[in-house]
Amino acid sequence: MTHWLASLGPARPGAWLPGLCLLLGATLASAAPGSWHSAGSLQTARGDHTATLLPAGKVLVAGGSTGFDPRACTVVASAELYDPASNGWTAAGALAGARRGHTATLLPNGKVLVAGGAGCGTTLLASAELYDPAADGWAPAEALATGRRGHTATLLPDGKVLVAGGLGDAGFVLDAELYDPATGSWALAGALATRRSGHTATLLSNGKVLVAGGNGPPPDSISASAELYDPATNSWKATGALATERVGHTATLLPDGSVLVAGGSPAGDLAELYEPATNSWTAAASLDTARYEHTATLLLDGTVLVAGGINESAAEALEATAERYDPSTGSWAAAGELAEGRSLHTATLLPGGKVLVAGGFVGNAELFDPGNGDTGSAVVHPVYRFYNRNTGGHFYTIDLAERNAVIAGYPWFRDEGFDFIAYPTQRAGTLPVYRFFDTDSGNHFYTMSESEKDAVVASYPWFRLEGIGFYAHDSWQAGTVPVYRFADTSTGGHFYTTRESERDNVIANYPWFRFEGVGFFAPR
């Protein structure tokens, strides 16, 4: 592999980020069935609410409904916080208006945008509100142009929020809207190709948004259609259709860039995979249990946890079962059972790798622990990835506190999730990956090569060694994936990815990125 470093021009304002080497993570075992444990009781039993992981690690639960009684208003305005440290719940003020079927989105500034939903009776809401964790309070935000429920809200790479579809006062809403946190205002975002609500919206690795399925107007009612939103053109375009129409399903972006769609009504136990490169769908292995209005959560090891829901093939029974999808084998396996069946609940991945399942028209919450207590299991951590808009470079950290500090205090860093996992301490067969900060450009650089590290220390004084970022493998072995490395000849920065589709896209379309081969191998 050819390695390359170059001096750059003067430092750019706001580019510096102090490096930390604190490591916090979870014990994972690829074949572990996992286990369920109590996470206390919510202050208000609710379903059809939202749950949002805050930068400090707590979870904000807001709104929802306490039941389905058509004779009474069961919609609530209360909010509460789950603290993983105490495994308990506390009040978090109240929304200005009670709502269910709304959306909640964590913004780059650390606040939470709640938008739309339904109030009591047939009232559909256009109002929006902002929760500020620092003040533990709510404030009004500019209203949507069109009130709606059953819509989706997707945080885009530029920090804006795309709201799409839903059911409005005049029927299914065709227009989409964009919220800009910088101005606090909404703007139109084109019109969907198909009217729908109860669909899914998934941010793809290429920055586009995949919308699939949902309810629609007659004669089709439940849809199999799918479409893509392109932020670059602010427009929508139909893409390949699902093989089976469905509503109340889930859609999960997998580590390889494909999307797993699972369950729904009337799809039952059927699952499909969307491949962005070909805009096409293929059948995936069927779920062990048919379900809709369930949850699906991508775990730190790359598997997907599906939990709860309603079993349409079992007299609409509430499901307590859970199962995991393993992309490496394309198969499902049982993942224990919840203490109580639930639907329209929420599932939130916590920083340590556990999953908080809350509500679903019941008052309790549960934690899913993906580990199996095997002392031979490797302790691994997600490596979070950010794009620095000021420098054009990428930043990687496995430090949860640092990740949260970047999200809350560095708005020019775009959160791109995590791309791979790594070890916090050295174990047999691993080597350190060193982290440097380029004080001239504001970029970071990572290398496993001892000779390259020594050369940088000796010859590039503006590169500050920040220590060992994490440990990985220097050669392939079972259970690892290659981490590809590029040198950005325009900025002197480096880029790393495990995704072959992303690697191929960079090689084909970004000639100023020089491919340097495999930087190291990360655990799968």
**Approximately what portion of the residues adopt beta-strand conformation?**
35-45%
Main β-sheet description: 4 strands, antiparallel
The N- and C-terminal alpha carbons lie at a distance of 22 Å
How many β-strand runs? 42
**Over all CA atoms, what is the radius of gyration?**
23 Å
Shape: globular
Uncertain stretches of 5 or more adjacent residues: 1-31, 372-378
- H/I helix tally: 3
Mean pLDDT: 88
Q: Helical residue percent?
A: under 10%
Based on secondary structure, the structural category is mainly beta
Structure description:
This protein is mainly beta. It has three helices and 42 strands. Strand 19 and strand 20 form a beta hairpin. The longest helix is centred in the C-terminal third of the chain and has 10 residues. The N terminus is likely disordered.
Q: What is the topology?
A:
Blueprint (H helix, E strand, L loop, with lengths): L25 E2 L7 E12 L3 E4 L5 E4 L15 E6 L4 E7 L8 E4 L5 E4 L12 E5 L4 E5 L10 E4 L5 E4 L2 E2 L2 E2 L2 E6 L4 E7 L8 E4 L5 E4 L13 E5 L4 E5 L10 E4 L5 E4 L8 E5 L4 E5 L10 E4 L5 E4 L2 E2 L5 E2 L2 E6 L4 E7 L8 E4 L5 E4 L3 E8 L9 E10 L5 E4 L2 H10 L3 E10 L8 E8 L5 E4 L2 H10 L3 E10 L7 E9 L5 E4 L2 H10 L3 E11 L1
